[in-house]
Amino acid sequence: MFETIIDRDRLKQHLGVAGWVIVDCRFDLTNKLAGRVAYRASHIWGAVYADLEHDLSGPPLIDHGRHPLPSPQALETLFERLGIEDRTQVVAYDAAGGSIAARLWWLLRYMGHHKVAVLDGGWQQWIAMDFPVTAGEESNAAGGFHGAPQRHLLHTIDELVGASLLLDSRDPARYRGDCEPIDRVAGHIPGAINRRWKDNLDADGLFLSADDLHLQFTTLFKGTPPQRVSVYCGSGVTACHNLLAIKHAGLEMGRLYAGSWSEWCADPSRPVARHSE
User: Fold this and answer.
1) Which of 26, 30, 114, 118 has the most CB atoms around its CB within 10 Å?
2) Is residue 57 a contact partner of residue 151, using CB atoms and an 8 Å limit?
3) Does a structural domain hold residue 127?
4) 165 and 139 in one domain?
């Protein structure tokens, strides 16, 4: 069973194996149709597609960020459409270092499904080996997914006071408030520390070893239990990459603040910090 990441060779060995579902999560925030276009042009053999905004996000219910969490009912419907059943091994991939695929990884875990992994190195590593690809749209037979929200994995905006440590996953310049290309206000939640999600990867776009990640996160947390850490980013997507890396390091996974900075800074009454804490 793969619960964090899987390498391209292991995935290749399981192409077409019953009980495995591969999900292409490629998405471009600057061109929202590009991911599906790329999928239709070429994707890992057997993969189905999940769109960040139409499938992995939903109408605002418990959070009001740019990518609100879908309802549990919507997630069950999505997972069944993708062909996921309770015992299915799911593998998600993208072309962005796992930053979008990690969102699907987290959503499945949130609904109680642990047999899910992100393809290490994603699309780039797969095509570098000339592994099997195909074009067009693919679908799986509907699965029988039964899950329930694991609320201990989630923090809402009013629950952040229960977090011992806030971890901001954005680039340092956005965290410091030097620039803000997306949201209305620059800066970060007061008290948060910065851990850019890209720092979980090496120069080839592969995850650092579990031992390296373990050392980095335990040093960063300074004795705070990982389960007391709440992780956020701009809209609750790339924060999932840090949660994936924490889990891959062998640590207890913290919580996702799904609304993230886009929700926090939309309320003028909430305080904003700039520069390093």
Assistant:
1) 118
2) no
3) yes
4) no
